[in-house]
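Reply to dn_fold:

You asked what the input looked like. This is it:
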Amino acid sequence: MKLESYELFANGSVEEIVQKIDSELKERNESPFWKEKVAPFSEAVLSVLVPLRDQGLLFNPEGKEEETLTPELFFRWCDFVSLKMLAFTLAYSNEAQKLLRTKLPEEKTLRYQPIELEKLANYLAKYSVNLENESLDFPIANYNLHLGVANVIKLLL
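and this is what came back:
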């Protein structure tokens, strides 16, 4: 993993990180199939992870606190099941006005500021994720597709 990737994830904006991923895609001359999927997926994931980073409230899919947004943490959230869980966690947290379903200390969860979920919700809805009922599953083909997208991103960074 390139050192600049770590610095970019730790401090960069959503736009800067997505632009870096997009430029790496162009340099590697990836197929158009992946090009049209990688940037929107990255933007959807980062649209919630960067605000969590900026609030000092990052956590991993197991709910444990993370100090820094790293490419590895980003990849962990690229798992489609984890991403769906994150979307619901943040939706419930927005309603409660505090961060829920994590193992972060209570005093930290109270400083949570609602995060805009529109980009993530639109992306998930496009891939048949039911955003009304968390227990409903999505097509396995969409899960497999996103494994491929995550692998392409991993190779780029």
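The chain has a mean pLDDT of 93.
Hope that clears it up.
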